[in-house]
Amino acid sequence: MPEKGLLIVLSGPSGVGKGTVRKEIFSQPDTAFEYSISVTTRKPRAGEVDGVDYFFRTREEFEEMIRHGKLLEYAEFVDNYYGTPVDYVRQTLDEGKDVFLEIEVKGARQVREKFPEGLFIFLMPPSLSELKNRIVTRGTETEDIIHNRMLTAREEIEMMELYDYVVENDQVELACERIKAIVVAEHCRRERVEKRYKKLLEVD
Ligand SMILES: Nc1nc2c(ncn2[C@@H]2O[C@H](COP(=O)(O)OP(=O)(O)O)[C@@H](O)[C@H]2O)c(=O)[nH]1
Ligand SMILES: Nc1ncnc2c1ncn2[C@@H]1O[C@H](COP(=O)(O)OP(=O)(O)O)[C@@H](O)[C@H]1O
């Protein structure tokens, strides 16, 4: 049986840059984590592909998945459901591979309850005004929604206490490096390396 992989959860307030940082991490050839593709009821945007960006499903299909216990966590976010397929996560961890989730904070909280041994990383904006800037420049939200997002952002940021690490997303490349360094350090801390060396000693 291989050693179980690490469940890595990246979360943080809306607009902080979770999607951007995640895409950058997975565009790097040395990244060895497996990305868990989420299920959503949101309509695909131009260029998004079913089974690559998300599994795009109807509300009925999503609710069926909830009823059948197919989701590790799920949350409603801006009128759409988002969730993590549980079978993929369990199987991949059992194969000894690290699984990476990029999810909003309510979902991350549910994962913490079910998988307390996961590695929880909170992505922080450099400031609240910069967070607002990012939401505005992304241009996907109306004035009203931006106001609500900023109110929720304060509550979301308070949740950072539940996380193992806080990473500032001042620059995308730096945030990615920090996240990868945390994962390496966590593997060492969790004795994976130590166990390997113990085995070496047994052989000698
Ligand atoms: N709880 C939960 N949140 C998710 C999941 N997948 C994506 N999200 C979050 O849903 C939010 C909206 O994602 P999306 O519609 O792709 O738009 P974005 O705001 O441009 O990233 C983001 O905060 C994602 O991190 C999931 O499986 N579970
Ligand atoms: N480090 C950064 N510096 C400046 N802008 C950023 C940074 N990270 C992300 N952004 C921008 O902020 C906006 C929100 O990023 P996004 O990845 O959609 O956030 P989230 O997935 O957390 O909602 C996007 O326009 C993105 O290009």
Structure explained in plain terms:
Belongs to the guanylate kinase family. This is Guanylate kinase. ATP binds at residues 12-19. The protein has 204 residues and is an alpha/beta fold. It has a domain at 7-36 and 97-203: P-loop containing nucleotide triphosphate hydrolases (Rossmann fold, 3-Layer(aba) Sandwich). The protein contains 8 helices and 9 strands. The protein has helices spanning 18-27, 59-67, 86-94, 105-114, 128-138, 143-158, 172-189, 192-203; strands spanning 7-11, 34-35, 39-40, 55-56, 71-77, 80-85, 99-102, 119-124, 165-168. The strands form 2 sheets. Strands 2-7-1-8-9 form a 5-stranded parallel beta sheet, sandwiched between helices. The longest helix has 18 residues, at 172-189. The two termini are 23 Å apart. The model has no long low-confidence stretch (mean pLDDT 93). Bound molecules: guanosine-5'-diphosphate and adenosine-5'-diphosphate. The site of adenosine-5'-diphosphate has 14 residues, from α1 and α5.
